[in-house]
């Protein structure tokens, strides 16, 4: 029993393993698979043209056939009496094979009970065609005065002379016959029913006309189909040419060249709209890949720099610990131990600050660590930072004032400092993070400028024709600040399309930073003076945190040289964060 069960299982599993292959094989056999779109379109157009011409041909044939049949019936009914009265003349003309008449006349006499042919048309070469009619006066279901169609009987008068094939076909055509009552009017005005009169017309001319019309329509239809196929092939090929270009561009993009773009076309066409959408999508994809590459490169550099920076305090801690072990048995061990412990404590403090800064940057990189829902007075934070700087450098002169935009020179608008108190400005930000930004900037001023050099803190509000989502994409450079200044709204806060920003500037009169190193200030672990940074407890991450916090608020910050050679930090933050709930068109 177990063997039988195992064999049955094996047998049933074999077909199931073949099912995917069978399905794939059936899928490959589907009609139309592997055929190009242009071939499908041309084939479809040819089929539609063929069906259309065939339908038109049949419609025209049916219409002409009905018209000719109605015309023949009208001729039979209108000329029946005239034909019957002139049977002798018609018989003479038809019997002479002159072809002057095509009428057939046959009467059936009730008195004699016989049928007599009065007029018999004779075709060429002695070919005689007669309609099939009863000889006993039976109407065979037909009504008097209503034309009907009947077959033809062909005979030859001259058997020695073979008839022409065309003549035989003409003679074999059916007949259109109408049966009428044979009435004889007497002298006293009464009518006498003598029998039935059959008057017929051959339908050979009508059939010949229909045959010629059909051949003409078929030839014209074939010409239309062939010409339509050629024209459709050219038009489809020309129409699908942009798609071919899109296909080639897509193949290059698939090979890794993300800089390729699809050639532009009129936007009001389907191909143009598709090209525009694909180019926009490719731009976003290329931008995302570049950002990813830049982020990966920054992450590699960040890990390398972090490892280097952490190695220094760890080496100091390890070295002083080893030194303590070596000297604890020597005289004055306690004094030497206190000195080693002091160095270990300083190194651990530096390492703790470095780790905290690293964690803060990691949270900001992940989009966490910022809650811009608090209403903060910017003047309060600046005044607190002034108090902190006074405590660090009591001899330093600190000036305050207001910032405005000088638009007298439209080509070079700039921020102007006016001494005085700070304006009362309230904005929606993360208060702790904004305080950290100002503290880090003040810390840099304390570390890298002389204690007796003056500084100015200024504050103002500007209206810009630039959304926060556009501003955050700008690089932290002085050139970007110039672009922002050119976006100053002419109508100010009254312009509904403009956005209001708080602008703060921190200006020192220290040694400054060379032009080629201004863009490196916000790089991680960059320090203008490494020895002074370590002496003052700097980690090289303060300005990187400043940039990350400002960008997390969709703001802008840059460093620039002052006319006296010092350094100025200019920061712009949107007054409101309501735009976060709206979807910007640039993110579509």
Automatic annotation (TrEMBL):
The chain crosses the membrane at residues 37-60, 212-236. It comes from the Bacteria. Its EC number is 2.7.13.3. One of its GO terms (cellular component) is plasma membrane. One of its GO terms (molecular function) is phosphorelay sensor kinase activity. Pfam families: HAMP, HATPase_c, HisKA. Keywords: Kinase, Membrane, Phosphoprotein, Transferase, Transmembrane, Transmembrane helix, Two-component regulatory system. SMART domains: HAMP, HATPase_c, HisKA. It is found in: Cell membrane. Residues 1-21 have a biased composition (Low complexity). Residues 305-577 form the Histidine kinase domain. Residues 1-31 are annotated as: Disordered. Residues 237-290 form the HAMP domain. CDD domains: HAMP, HisKA. It catalyses: ATP + protein L-histidine = ADP + protein N-phospho-L-histidine. This is histidine kinase. It comes from Bifidobacterium magnum.
């Amino acid at each position: 029993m177990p063997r039988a069960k195992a064999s049955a299982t094996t047998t049933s599993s074999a077909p199931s393993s073949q099912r995917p292959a069978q399905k794939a094989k059936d899928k490959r056999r589907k009609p139309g698979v592997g055929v190009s779109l242009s071939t499908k379109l041309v084939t479809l157009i040819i089929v539609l043209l063929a069906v259309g011409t065939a339908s038109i041909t049949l419609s025209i044939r049916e219409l002409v056939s009905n018209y000719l049949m109605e015309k023949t019936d009208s001729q039979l009914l209108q000329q029946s009496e005239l034909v019957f009265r002139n049977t002798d003349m018609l018989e003479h003309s038809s019997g002479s094979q002159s072809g002057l008449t095509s009428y057939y006349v046959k009467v059936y006499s009730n008195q004699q009970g016989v049928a007599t042919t009065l007029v018999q048309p004779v075709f060429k070469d002695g070919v005689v065609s007669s309609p099939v009619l009863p000889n006993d006066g039976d109407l065979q279901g037909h009504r008097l005065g209503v034309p009907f169609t009947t077959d033809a009987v062909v005979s030859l008068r001259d058997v020695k002379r073979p008839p022409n094939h065309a003549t035989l076909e003409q003679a074999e055509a059916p007949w259109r016959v109408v049966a009428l009552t044979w009435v004889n009017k007497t002298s006293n005005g009464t009518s006498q029913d003598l029998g039935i009169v059959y008057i017929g017309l051959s339908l050979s001319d009508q059939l010949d006309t229909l045959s010629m019309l059909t051949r003409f329509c078929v030839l014209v239809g074939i010409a239309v189909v062939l010409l339509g196929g050629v024209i459709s092939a050219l038009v489809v090929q020309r129409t699908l040419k942009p798609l071919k270009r899109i296909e080639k561009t897509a193949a290059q993009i698939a090979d890794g060249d993300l800089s390729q773009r699809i050639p532009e076309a009129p936007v009001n066409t389907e191909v143009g709209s598709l090209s525009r959408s694909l180019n926009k999508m490719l731009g976003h994809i290329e931008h995302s890949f570049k950002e990813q590459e830049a982020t990966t490169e920054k992450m590699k550099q960040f890990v390398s720099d972090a490892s280097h920076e952490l190695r220094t305090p760890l080496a100091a801690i390890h070295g002083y610990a080893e030194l303590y072990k070596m000297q604890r048995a020597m005289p004055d061990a306690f004094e030497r131990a206190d000195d080693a412990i002091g160095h270990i404590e300083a190194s651990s403090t530096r390492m703790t600050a470095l780790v905290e800064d690293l964690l803060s940057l990691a949270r900001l990189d992940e989009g966490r660590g910022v809650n811009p829902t608090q209403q903060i007075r910017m003047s309060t934070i600046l005044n607190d930072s002034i108090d902190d700087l006074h405590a660090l450098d009591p001899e330093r002169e600190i000036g305050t004032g207001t910032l405005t935009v000088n638009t007298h020179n439209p080509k070079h608008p700039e921020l102007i400092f006016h001494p005085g108190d700070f304006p009362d400005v309230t904005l929606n930000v993360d208060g702790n993070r904004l305080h950290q930004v100002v503290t880090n900037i003040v810390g840099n001023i304390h570390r890298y400028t002389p204690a007796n050099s003056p500084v100015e803190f200024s504050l103002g509000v500007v209206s810009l024709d630039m959304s926060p989502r556009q501003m955050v994409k700008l690089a932290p450079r002085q050139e970007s600040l110039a672009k922002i200044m050119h976006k100053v709204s002419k109508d100010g806060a009254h312009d509904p399309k403009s956005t209001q920003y708080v602008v703060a500037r921190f200006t020192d009169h220290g040694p400054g930073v060379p032009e080629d190193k201004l863009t490196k200030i916000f790089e991680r672990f960059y320090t203008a003076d490494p020895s002074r940074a370590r002496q003052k407890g700097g980690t090289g991450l303060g300005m990187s945190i400043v940039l990350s916090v400002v960008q997390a608020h969709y703001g802008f910050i840059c460093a620039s040289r002052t006319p006296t050679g010092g350094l100025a930090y200019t920061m712009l933050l949107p007054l409101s964060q309501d735009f976060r709930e709206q979807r910007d068109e640039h993110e579509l």
